Amino acid sequence: MSIDVMAGPRSTAVLARANPLAKLAAALVLTIVLLLSVDWASATVALVFELAVLPLAGLSARNLLLRGWPILAAALVGGYGSALLAPKTGAVLLNWGPLLFTEGSLQSGVAIMLRGIAIALPGVIVLASTDPTDLADALAQKMKLPHRFVLGALAALRLVGLLVEEWQTLGMARRARGVGSGSGFVGRFKASLGQALALLVQAIRRASRLAVSMEAKGFGAGPRSWARESTFGPLDAWVVAVAVLTAGAVVGAAVGLGTWNPVFG
Amino acid sequence: MSPYDEDKFGQGTRPAAVCAKGWGWQHSGRAARAVHDLDLNIAPGERVLLLGPSGAGKSTLLHALAGVLGADQDAAESGSLTVDGENPAVRRGSAGLMQQDPEAQVVLSRIGDDVAFGAENLAVPRDKIWRRVGNALDAVGLDFPLDHPTSALSGGQKQRLGLAGILAMQPGLLLLDEPTANLDPAGVLEVRDAVLRMLERTGATMVVVEHRVAVWVDVVDRIVVLAPADRGQGGGVLIDGSPEHVLRQARRMLTDAGVWVPGYIPITRRRKDAPGSRPASQSASRNRTGADVLLDADQLAVSRRAMNAHKRRGAARRHPVAAMASGIDLTVSAGAALSITGPNGAGKSTLALTLGGLLPPLDGRLRAADALSRGAGPEPHRWKGGDLIQRIGTVFQEPEHQFVTGRVLDELNFGPKLLGRGFERVDELLERLRLTHLAEANPYTLSGGEKRRLSVATVLAANPSLLVLDEPTFGQDANTWAELVDLLTELLDAGTSVISVSHDEEFTQLLGGTRFPITAAGRPIPQETQPAAAHREAAQPVAAHFAAAQARAEVSGEH
C-alpha cells in the first residue's frame, strides 16, 4: 500500500467545507496582528480562540500533538532562550551560576513562547482542514492563477507519497547489489547520495510519463472547464468575520491590559 | 434530443480515420530515425494490432497520433500523418492514449476527479462531465464511490481508471501502448474486457501495441507489422492483413523477433535433473541429515514495514505492524527450485525480499544454515552487503532499481570488485547474455529485454549460492523469456538454488522443483488441499527440495 499524502476520505469537519481562500485570508489576518506585538496578553487571547476552533477543523488534541509537536518544541526552546537572554528586570527568580531568570525575563520568555504557538497554529488549522484538490480549485478558479501550474503542482504532490515507498525499494534493491557495505560515515554518506540520485532519476522518469498522460488528455491545449466549482458562501463570510473580530479582541485585550508591545517603533 | 441522449456513448463519438503518407520521425539527438517512410491507412472503427521488433517505432507512432510528440523542438518530421485529415498535434485530447505504467496513468487523488480531468481539459460543461464520469466508471466496471482514493487501486484497476478517463473524453481514436505489460493474468483480462466494452459502446478506432498477441488476436480486424527503421533501409510496414493471414505468413519472422504468437512456446533447455529421476528415499534422507539445507523458515511472518518495527521496538508494540504473510514454514536446499505463487497482494514479493535477506523477519525465525552462511552468521538480513551478494542474489521486478553505475561494464564489474575478485566471470556473462556489444552503453538506455538480462547478469557476477527472482518474466518478449529459462535451468543443474515469485505458469513448470502457494490472506496453503498437479510436484523427489512442513502447515492453515 502506498503512503499517499493526499489519500483518505474527505474530512467532514465544518472548516473543511469552507473555501480554502477564506481560510487562508483568516489565518493571514490573525497572523499579521500577532506579528505586530510581542506580549503575553495578545498571544493568550489568540491561542484560546485557536484552541476553541480546533474541533471545527476536525483536529483532536492528540492529532494536534502528533502533527504539531515540532512547533511546540521550537516554541519551548525559543521561550527558554528568551527568558535566558532578555533584560533582567524585576525580582530574581532563579540565580544558579550562569542561569539567571528574573520576573521580567521570564515574562518575555513566556510571551515569545505563546506568540510562537499562536502564530503557527492558524497554519496548522488551515492545512489540516484543507484538501489539496480544493485548494488547487480555489487558486485556479478564484485567484485566477494559471491552471497549468496549479494542476501540475497538484499532480506532482500525488507522486510525493510514492517517493517514500520508492526510496525503501531502492534501498533494498541496492543492498542486493552490495551497495552500502563500505563501513563508516563516509561509506554510508556515499551510499545515501547514490540512492538519492537513483530516486531522482526514477522520479523524473515517472513525472515525464505522467506529463505525457496529462498532455494526451488535452491538458493545457486550450480553455478548460471545472468539474468542481470553487464557491464562496455564508460560511466563508463567517470564517473571515470571526478572524477579524478575534484580531480586534487580541489588540483590545493587549492595549486594555497595557501589555501592547509593538515590534516596530 | 434531450441533453442526456446527446451525451450517451456512441453519439458523442465519431470514429476517426488515420492516414500516414511517407511519414518519418527522428527524435532530437538520435542518429537513427524512430520511424521512416511509413504508409498506413486505418479506416474509422477499425481495430488494429501493431507489432514489430523493439526499435520499430511503435510507441513513437502512438505518441504522434496522440499529438504528444510536438514538444520536441529539434525533432525532424517528414511526410504527413493525419487523424481525420488533421495534424494530431493541433487536436491533442481527441485521441485517448494509454501507457504501460499504471502509476503514470493517474493524475488526481480521487477517482471521480481523475476521470473528469480529461473532459475538463476539453472544456465540457460541468453537468455533462459528471454524467460522463458516471457512465465511464460504469463502462469499465469500477464500482467505487467518486471520492475513493486512487492510491488504493490495484495496477489493473488503475489501468481501467485511465481508460474511464479516456472514455469520458469520448475520443474517436483509442491508442493503447502495451496497456497490460505490467499486469498479472487476472489484470490483463480485466483491462482487455473493459476496452472491448468501450469499443462496443462507442465504435471508436483502436490501435494497440502488445507483445502478447493472444490477448488481442480474437478482437482485432487487422495486424500491422512494422519493420525497424534503423537498419539503413526499409522501415515502414512489413506485413499488413487479417490476423489469420499475418500469423500464417509471418509466424516465423514474428517468433524470431520475440513476439508471443498464440500457441508458441519457445524451445528451451530442459532440466537434466528432471523430476522423478532420483529415488524419493535419497532426497528424503539428504534432507533429514540436513547436509544440503541452505535456508530454513519456521512460522515466518513478513512485512514491508518490518524494518521500522525492528528499529523502534517500543513504538512497534503500541502500533503493531500487520504481517503481509505469516505462518510460513519452508526449507530451501541446495540446487533446487522453489516457486512462490498466489494472487496479487498475498505478500509473495515481501516473502521473497525477506528470504533474500533484504527485510528482517517480522516474526518467527529465518535461519541460514552453515552451508549458506559460511561463517557470516545465521540471520541473512544482518549480513554486510559484500557477504550478502556472494551468498544470496536478489533480482528485482524493475531492473532500473538495481542499476548503480552509468556503464554496462561497470555494472557487471561492481560485484566482483567489491569482493576483490577477478573479472573473468564478467566476460563470460557478457557473452552468455549477448551484452558484449553494449558493454560501453548506459544501462538506462537499453531496451526492456536488455535491461532484464543485465540485471540478472549483475547479480550472477557475484556468484551467489541462492538466487531470488521477483516476477523475472513480467513484460518480457519470447526471446528474453527463453534465455532466462535456459540460464536458470543451467544454474540449477550446476547446483545454484533458485527461488522465484511468478504468475507465469509455463516458466514455473520449466524450472521444476516445488511450488509454495500462498492464499490472498497471506497464509501458506496446506499441501493436502493443493491442486493435484501441484501436490504431485511438491512430492516429487527433486535433488533437494523445499516443502512446507505438513504438520505445521495444517495448524497454520486458513481459519
Shape of chain B: globular
For the secondary structure, the number of strands of chain B is 17
Strand order of the largest sheet of chain B: 5-6-7-3-8-9
Fraction of residues in helix of chain A: 55-70%
Cα radius of gyration of chain B in angstroms: 26 Å
CATH class of the largest domain in chain B: Alpha Beta
Distance between the termini of chain A: 55 Å
Report the uncertain regions of chain B.
1-10, 274-291, 313-318, 528-559
CATH architecture of the largest domain in chain B: 3-Layer(aba) Sandwich
Task: Label the structural class of chain A.
Answer: mainly alpha
Most residues in contact: chain pair: A-B, 55 and 76 residues
Overall structural domain count of chain A: 2
Total helical elements of chain B: 22
Tally of contiguous helical segments of chain A = 8
- Overall number of domains of chain B: 2
User: How many strand segments of chain A?
Assistant: 2
Note the overall shape of chain A: flat
Q: Roughly what is the average pLDDT of chain B, rounded to an integer?
A: 82
- How far the N terminus sits from the C terminus of chain B, by CA atoms, comes to 57 Å
SSE succession of chain A: HHHEEHHHHH
